[in-house]
Amino acid sequence: MQVAKTIGGTPKELILPKFPIELEYFIDWSRQLIRSEPISYTEIYHWALLTRNDPKPWEIDVLVEIDSIFHRVKHEQQS
Hints:
It is a single chain. The protein is an all-alpha fold. Helices cover about 60% and strands about 0% of the residues. It has 4 helices and no strands. α2 crosses α4. The longest helix is centred in the C-terminal third of the chain and has 22 residues, at about 55-79. The chain starts with a helix and ends with a helix.
């Protein structure tokens, strides 16, 4: 990390909490789903059918939120 090299360590604000191993599958699912445009429920439905995943409603909500955060950050970086 360039900041750590410059100041001789990582600022505490940049140290992220450890991601719970039980939720790691969200990383995999997000990588499969996130594209250049925001994800739709139809796309999630077809992804679930094709991959034989059976996400629960709360998991779909999390996927939509992850996608939303991804696109918001992407937009902020482009501005």
